Fold:
Amino acid sequence: MAFINLQNVTYKYPLTKTPVLQNINLQVNEGEFVAVIGPNGAGKSTLCYALAGFVPHFFKGEISGTIEVDGVESSKSTLDEWVLNVGLAFQNPFNQISGAKYTVFEEIAFGLENNGVPREEIRPRVEEAMKMTDISNLADRSPYSLSGGQQQRVALTSILVMKPKLLVLDEPTSQMDPIGTREVFGVVRRMAEGGMTVVMVEHKMEWIANFADRVIALKDGQILLEGKPNEVLTSDVLAENGFGISRYTSTAREAKKRGLWKKENLPVTLDEAVEGFKLG
Amino acid sequence: MHERLSFYVKRNSVIHDLNPLTKVILTLALILIAFTSPWYWTPHLLVLVAIIPLSFIGKVAPEFFRTAIRIILPAAGFLFLMQAFFQPVGDTVIFKFYFLDVTQESLMFAFRNATRVIVMVSAFTFMLLTTHPSELMSDLTRRGLPGQFAYVIISTLQILPQMQAKAQTIISAQRSRGLDTESSFLKRMGSLSPLIGPLVFGSLAEVEERAIAIEARGFTSKKVKTSLHEIPDHSSDKIIRWGLVILVILSIALNLWPS
Structure:
């Protein structure tokens, strides 16, 4: 039995005509790291919301099919129960800061307070979570005085402190500079290595190639391709369908047409490209 | 970015150790007594024997006096002048200023009202200086204030400066493309109106995201909320609170008593 199990999920936002998700079937095993890619409007964020329970509990709208995580069906649960198992973080770190707290430490404790965790448990859990994401030094700062990368790590820690079984990330680094991106990816990688199930929407192909177990390519609310990162990311189908692809892949593809790329597979990362071009 | 987004000053004092609700009641009691006590000199006395000493006991005197000199006194002074000149009471004219008569009665009236305002604003200032806003809200929530209500108040306090900064960014961005912000008032109003759209709609979208973010952390959970900080509530707090309530009742009763 898969940890995440989506059966024929079709979903329409209220007051819209076309479904954003169409007949999605998806199984993810426990501990798996799945990356989701797709052009704008492909339904990536909606898929995240569906996994995190916000579709349909928060956004309403019409949904058919079943969403199951860890054997529990979303439609039979409530949002406040669902979020205990599934954590969600998204693009804009600023909007994920609650605004109700004055220090990073209090901010991270917010979710535990809401869920009635006893006081003597809160402090050690917050400290442990901050250690995991390497932000212990920010504990007494105001969450609003931090850089984007730091804020995003605070937002992630605020979710991780609740010990979810599944972590859903919707382009957490899209508004980060290279330093912020590295900080956030570092945390996500540690979580995945620690055995947490992660579903992550991401555009940075090289990063996906290095760390994801599986890639799902969404287009127009449907799964277009699914498979191992290198197979999916170098597929001709992606380039033909308007997906953003790695510059090393597109360069090597051109080179292959001219007979300059000798290997069978196209590269995604710089290292693979260097190695491949050395052969030629 | 400014680190401190509230008035709160962290110090170790008897006042800081009081329960937040006690400080709220203290503030309200000071204000109510200043406005209802029939005795003329009550508000003046409250400033001298209650608020100023309290600011020393609470170890926030420097911050308190800074606020008083910068904001409270100018506002009260202005109010005093307005009322002294324009209050048409009494006949004992002290001096004339063109067509305006300043009478002894209007001076007395203005002096009391201005002092009442000083009591009101400085009592609030004192409370804000010595009470951590999130502790106040946790305490009130624990006593039955709806969590959503507390959240709205406290997040507004924090998010307003952020929105101001955002408005400033939008204005600067438009100025760099030639937006007129320095000519006549009407022209400026006209050129600012197209900026309201992005600010308002942008903020609405932000509100939805923030709602998702706090729901993802169990904000609407039906479980009884706990609090990271232990909020003090000693038996002395209860005694102070009831004492203050009795004083207020006395003051109102004396005011209503037919004399």
